[in-house]
Specification:
The complex is a heterodimer of chains A (142) and B (421). Chain A has 142 residues and is mostly helical. Chain A has one domain. Chain A has 4 helices and 2 strands, in the order H-E-E-H-H-H. Classes of the chains: A mainly alpha (142), B alpha+beta (421).
C-alpha cells in the first residue's frame, strides 16, 4: 500500500502541475487574442477564466498528491481518493459545462486546452479510483 | 485451504510484481509508453487512410476532369475544404460525354462564401454546386436518405455543417438557405463543404447582386455594368464550370478512358479516382516509413531496457529461485514464473497505454489534423479492435522475448551453486 500511495501521489502531483500549467499557454488570451466590445473596451475571452479556474483547482489537487505521499492509513487514502475524484471531475466540467471555452472552431482553447483538461481530468479520476481500490482491498499494517 | 496449496505460477508472479513495486512500475511505464506510442502513430496513419478512402467513396466518381494545371487546387479543395477558383468552358462537358466508355458526366461549380462579410453567416465556406439533371454522386444519397429532390434554396452539408445557433437558415451572400441534411463523416474537406443545386446557386447569385458586399464571383463574366458601376444585366446561365465528374461504363478501363479524355482535349486533366490525393498519398507513405523506423528503434531500445531490468531482477532473485527449485519446482515452473510476471506487466501496461493513446488521439484529433495537415477519421470499431489486439500481442511478444534470456539463464543454474554465489 505504501508503494502504491507513493506512485499515485507522484502521478497526482504531476497531473496537478500539468492542469495548472497547460491552460496558461493555451488560452486565446495567451495568444494575444481578446474581445473588443461595442464601447471599445478590450476584455478577455471566457477561456481565460477557465484557465484561471483550472489553476485554482490544481492547488487542492497538488495538496491531495502531497498528502497521498505521506498518508499511511486506509481511511486517509480513501478520503483523499474521493477528493481526487471530485477535483478530477471539476477539471473536466470547467471547460465543458461550468465556464466553457470560445465558440469559434479552430481556436487553441478548443483544439488543445479543452481536450487536455478532459484527458488530465480523466487520468486524475482513474488514478484516484486505483487509490480507492487499493485502500479498500489492502489490510491495514499492524 | 492450506496457504501453500494456493501457490501457483499466477499468484507467485503477482506477489513478485507487488513485492518490488518500483521495478514493476518502471517496466509498466516503459511498456505503456511504447505501446501507447505505437498505437497512436498507427491509429493516425490508419485514420488518414480510412478518411481518404471514405472521401473517395463519397465522391462517387471514377474520374474527375479539371482544367489543366489545377490538380493541386482540386486536391486542396476536396481534402482541406480550401475554397478554390478554377474554371473551364462548359462545352467541354458535352465533349467528355461523347467519349467511348463514359457512362455519365456531370458538371460541378466550385464557389466560396465571402470572408468577414455580414451577409454570410459562415466565412470562406467551400461550396459545391451540382446539376441535379446529370448528377450521380449526391442524388443517390438524397434518395437513400428519403430526401428525394432538393427544392430551391435547400442545401445539404458535410458532417460539420450546422445552422448557426439562434438562426433558422444558413445565410450566404444575403440569401437564406435551408439545411436539409448532412452527409456521413469522411474526415476530409467534404465535411466542411456545402452542396447545392444549380437552381439554388442561381437564386443566390441573383440575391448577391443587391444583398451581398460583393456579388457572387462565379458569373461575374456575364454581368454587365453601366458607367456608374451598377449592374444593368446579368446572365445567370453559367458558361463556365469548375470540374466534370465522370462515371465509366461497367467493364471499361478507367485509365484508358482518362487518357482518351486528355488526348481529346489538351486543356483538361483527367484524374482517376485512385490517383486523386496522389500527392498526399505519397506524403503519407513517407510519414508511415518514418514512423516505422522510429518505432522500430524505440521498440529495440525498450526491449533491451526491459531485458536489462529483468536480468537484474533475475540476479537479485537467484537465491529465491534456487530455493524454489530445491523444494521440487521444475526448471520450467521457475522460468514460467518469471515469464508470467513479464507477460502480466506487458498485457496490463499495453492495454492501459493503448486505451489512453486512443482516448488522447480522439480528444486531440482536431489539433492533430491541423498540425500534421492530414485528414483523420476514427477507424471502424472492428479495425480499432484488431489494432488493439495486435498492439497487445506485439507488446506481449517483445516483452516476453526480452525476459526469456534472463529467465532461462537463471533457471538453468544448479540450485546449490546458485545459492552459494
Amino acid at each position: 500500500m505504501k508503494g502504491v500511495a507513493l506512485v499515485t501521489g507522484i502521478i497526482i502531483i504531476v497531473l496537478a502541475v500539468s492542469i495548472a500549467a497547460i491552460p496558461q499557454f493555451t488560452t486565446c488570451g495567451s495568444q494575444g487574442k481578446m474581445l473588443t466590445t461595442s464601447t471599445g473596451t478590450v476584455i478577455p475571452m471566457k477561456c481565460t477564466w477557465t484557465g484561471q479556474a483550472e489553476l485554482a483547482l490544481s492547488l487542492p489537487l497538488f495538496a491531495v498528491g502531497v498528502l497521498l505521499l505521506i498518508s499511511r492509513r486506509k481511511e486517509s487514502l480513501r478520503n483523499l481518493s474521493f477528493m481526487g475524484m471530485i477535483l478530477g471531475a471539476l477539471v473536466i466540467l470547467l471547460p465543458t459545462n461550468l465556464i466553457g471555452v470560445c465558440a469559434a472552431p479552430g481556436m487553441i482553447c478548443i483544439s488543445v486546452m479543452m481536450p487536455a483538461m478532459i484527458f488530465f481530468g480523466t487520468l486524475t479520476i482513474l488514478t484516484s479510483i486505483v487509490v480507492l481500490i487499493i485502500s479498500v482491498w489492502t489490510k491495514e499494517p499492524s | 485451504m492450506d496457504e501453500r496449496a494456493k501457490l501457483n505460477v499466477f499468484t507467485l508472479a503477482i506477489k513478485n510484481i507487488s513485492g518490488n513495486s518500483f521495478r514493476s512500475f518502471i517496466i509498466f511505464l516503459c511498456v505503456m509508453g511504447m505501446a501507447g506510442f505505437f498505437f497512436a502513430t498507427t491509429l493516425i496513419i490508419w485514420g488518414a487512410e480510412y478518411s481518404l478512402n471514405s472521401g473517395l467513396e463519397r465522391l462517387g466518381a471514377d474520374i474527375i476532369v479539371v482544367p489543366a494545371g489545377a490538380e493541386t487546387k482540386v486536391e486542396s479543395a476536396l481534402l482541406m475544404a480550401k475554397p478554390t477558383q478554377m474554371w473551364m468552358a462548359r462545352d467541354k462537358l458535352d465533349k467528355i460525354g461523347k467519349i467511348p466508355g463514359v457512362a455519365a458526366a456531370s458538371p460541378q461549380y466550385y464557389l466560396s462564401s465571402l470572408y468577414g462579410a455580414p451577409c454570410c453567416s459562415v466565412w470562406e465556406m467551400f461550396i459545391v454546386v451540382f446539376d441535379p439533371a446529370t448528377d450521380f454522386t449526391i442524388r443517390p444519397w438524397l434518395e437513400s436518405e428519403g430526401i428525394g429532390k432538393l427544392a430551391k434554396n435547400e442545401v445539404i452539408g458535410g458532417s460539420a455543417i450546422v445552422i448557426p445557433s439562434g438562426e433558422k437558415f444558413i445565410k450566404l451572400y444575403g440569401h437564406n438557405l435551408s439545411l436539409k441534411g448532412n452527409l456521413k463523416e469522411t474526415g476530409i474537406g467534404i465535411d466542411q463543404t456545402l452542396f447545392m443545386s444549380l437552381e439554388t446557386a442561381e437564386a443566390m447569385a441573383e440575391t448577391s447582386l443587391t444583398q451581398a458586399m460583393s456579388p457572387l464571383q462565379w458569373n461575374t463574366c456575364c454581368i454587365v455594368l453601366n458607367s456608374a458601376g451598377e449592374v444593368i444585366s446579368q446572365d445567370v446561365n453559367p458558361a463556365l464550370i469548375s470540374a466534370v465528374l465522370v462515371k465509366v461504363q461497367s467493364g471499361a478501363d478507367v485509365r484508358m478512358v482518362a487518357q482518351q479524355i486528355m488526348l481529346n482535349d489538351s486543356e483538361v486533366t483527367a484524374i482517376t479516382s485512385p490517383n486523386l490525393f496522389g500527392t498526399f498519398h505519397k506524403q503519407l507513405t513517407g510519414l508511415l516509413w518514418g514512423f516505422l523506423a522510429i518505432l522500430s528503434m524505440c521498440w529495440m531500445l525498450s526491449a533491451a531496457l526491459i531485458g536489462l531490468i529483468f536480468s537484474m531482477a533475475a540476479n537479485e532473485r537467484r537465491r529465491e529461485i534456487s530455493v524454489l527449485r530445491a523444494m521440487g519446482a521444475t526448471r520450467q515452473f521457475a522460468s514460467f514464473t518469471l515469464l508470467m510476471e513479464a507477460g502480466l506487466l506487458a498485457v496490463t501496461a499495453s492495454l492501459l497505454g493503448i486505451l489512453l493513446a486512443a482516448f488522447g488521439t480522439y480528444l486531440f484529433r482536431d489539433f492533430l489534423t491541423a498540425t500534421l495537415k492530414i485528414p483523420f477519421l476514427f477507424p471502424s470499431p472492428a479495425s480499432f479492435l484488431s489494432l488493439l489486439i495486435g498492439g497487445i500481442l506485439l507488446t506481449l511478444l517483445i516483452v516476453t522475448l526480452a525476459a526469456l534470456i534472463p529467465a532461462l539463464r537463471i533457471t538453468g543454474q544448479e540450485p546449490a551453486i546458485a545459492m552459494r554465489e
